[in-house]
Amino acid sequence: MEPGLVGPGPYRATRLWNEIIELFRAGMPLRKHRCRFKSYERCFKASEAVDCLHELLGSNQNFGPEVTRNQTVKLLKKFLKNHVIEDIKGRWGKEDFQDDGHLYRFPPSSPLKPYPKKRSYGKEVIKFPDWNETKAGVSQEHIPVKSVTMNSEMWYKRHSIAIGEVPACKLVFHRELTQKNIEEIWKSMTLSKLQKVLGLDSLDEVLDTKLVNSNHIFQNVYNVNKLGIVTLEDKSKELPHWILSAMKCLANWPSCSDLKQPTYSGFERDVFKTIVDYFGQMKEPLLTFHFFDIFVSVLGLLQNHSKAVEALQISCLLLPPENRKRLQLLVRMMARISFNKDLPPLSESTKTRILMVQAFSRCILCSKDEMDLDELLAAKLVSFLMDNYQEILSVPSSLKSSIEEHVVHLQRVQVKYAGADTDATFPPPFFCHQISTDEFERQRATGSQEPLAALLEEIVMNKELSVKDKKKQLKQFQKSYPEVYKVRFPTPETEAVLFPEKNKQKSRLLTWALKKPFQPFHRTRSFRM
């Protein structure tokens, strides 16, 4: 069985768990072993299981080579607890697996985890200011209305409106956008973008959108300092000064400007332990329990670097501002420590980078109900965060500019033409729902082809247009929508029927020219003097 990348979507952790079990059962060599003068068929040593599973996880693109042997042992302990394996006497249920010579075997069938029942998060409807609501104190009756003739350039921009004489137009005023309105727009468009990047039909099964706080997104975007670090309005939620000093000390080692006291041998290890203890006592991880599934889904995009970075950028905007700030400071410190060659080793047996991942992965990502792959998934995410923290923990500029443009667009006074819907350059964001292929084809045909065909027919039948203007508009239409134009005019002859008189005149002129070729001038007697 070939390992494959488990992409984004609901229950990704469960899918990974089941895949690893199947791969392990298929790849673990089984043979005869002796223990205390007795032979056991189809079993394996604990150390052999660690070797096999460690190699399997390292070559699996869902986990990668950064999985340590210690993490592999912890996973095998969970295998024993969940009866994926058992000892040669049939015992299981405890996490007492060790990397030694004890013998284990597979039960007749290793239990795969069932997928939970489909979660049904209630759909949240976000209301936007109505285009048709007039501003208080302004009457549409007193607004002058006159006919407007649209040229081809205007039509190209607003092709949903009939070309030619537009009967009337009116100004559409918007109500003032409140701060709450703007924050809800940020929430809706941010979630829509996240859904698109993840490639999901809906976010319902990986995120409860009701738990997404629109004000958090807004603060994470606009309440930042020059370095892009979030500034908190509530100063009581800041990190304690002594923790900030300790983090700055290791991040800027050996320049510990904040620390006045002298250092000693092993000082940096004590400082590191203080930081680990502080973050380890938190009741909830920095990425929060609510967003566990969405971040696990993002892990399915790590093979596509740019998409993974974009998805994590957006996902981190959903965090409470205090969590985002702590994450920014912590990951920046971890990355600097990992690449700081002047900092003495913080562990005798573990490399600094691996130590950073092991020490802080659980305080960054874990589930509320302890899951069997929590540690491996968190380690994978934290490693990627460390390598790309400057990009991931910055505000995505494209998203920010598109939302700001949309807000400005909503605040403008709009001109609404009779018989046409409001300009849909920036449609209100909404959550997509999957439809069948047949329904998609039907909507595409009825939603675009039929109105365009009707528009073309209106141009053709408009007797008030001059021949020159009609040809100009038809040429513009043909350039913009060649398929619709070809259906109406499949051959040049069908197009020529529109201008019969001119064609007939040309034909007569050509016939006369053929019948009477040019004759040279001859002088006659009448010209003599």
In short:
The protein has 529 residues and is α+β, with helices and mostly antiparallel strands. The chain is 48% helix and 6% strand. Among the domains are: 14-105, Arc Repressor Mutant, subunit A, CATH 1.10.10.10; 194-401, Phosphatidylinositol 3-kinase, Chain A, CATH 1.10.555; 448-497, no CATH class.
Number of strands: 8
Count of alpha and pi helical runs: 19
Please indicate the percent range of residues in DSSP E strands (runs of 2 or more): 5-15%
Q: Indicate the structural class.
A: alpha+beta
Q: What is the molecular shape?
A: extended
User: SSE order, as H and E?
Assistant: HEEHHEEEHEEHHHHHHHHHHEHHHHH
The CATH class of the domain at 194-401 is: Mainly Alpha
Question: What strand order characterises the main sheet?
Answer: 1-2-4-3
Annotated CATH topology of the domain at 194-401: Phosphatidylinositol 3-kinase, Chain A
